[in-house]
Each structure stands twice: as structure tokens, then as C-alpha cells.
Amino acid sequence: MPKLIQERWKCIGCGACAAVADEFWEMAGDGKSQMKVKHTAKKTKDGDVHEGDITAAQVAPNEEAVNVCPVNCIKLQK
Predict the structure, then answer these.
(1) What ranges do the domains of the chain cover?
(2) pLDDT tens digits, 37-67
(3) What is the DSSP string of 27-48?
(4) What's the pTM value of the predicted model, to 2 decimals?
């Protein structure tokens, strides 16, 4: 199953991911983006990392979110 990964601590809050894939991304109250799919959060030495499982059909729109992120904080594991 594909996995969506966001190194949320890197997010600069530009909103590009939410603009191209608003079904999966939104801007949170702290000014950073967050995934709308069910996910888990874990603390790393650098900061929060969120991971959520997505379906094969959800890969394409999230690939666009990965591609538009200027700080490369969104990753897709296929």
C-alpha cells in the first residue's frame, strides 16, 4: 500500500500542496499544511513526521503535491 510522508517540521506554509491537491491537503491553524488522510505522527530528532496510507488511486494527485512543494517535505512511498 502506498504511503504519504510529510516531514512537517520542514513545511514553510506556502500552501502549494493544498492548492493542487485540496482533497488530501489543508492548511492548519499553525500556518503549516497537514494531510487530510488518516495518519500517524511521530517525533524525530528534527521534528514531527506524519505518515498516512493511501490507495493506488490517490497516488497521482499526491505526486503533484510532492512536485510543487518548494522545500521537499512531502514524500510518496510506493
Answers:
(1) 3-77
(2) 999 999 999 999 999 999 999 999 999 999 9
(3) E-TTSSEEESS--EEEE-SSSE
(4) 0.91
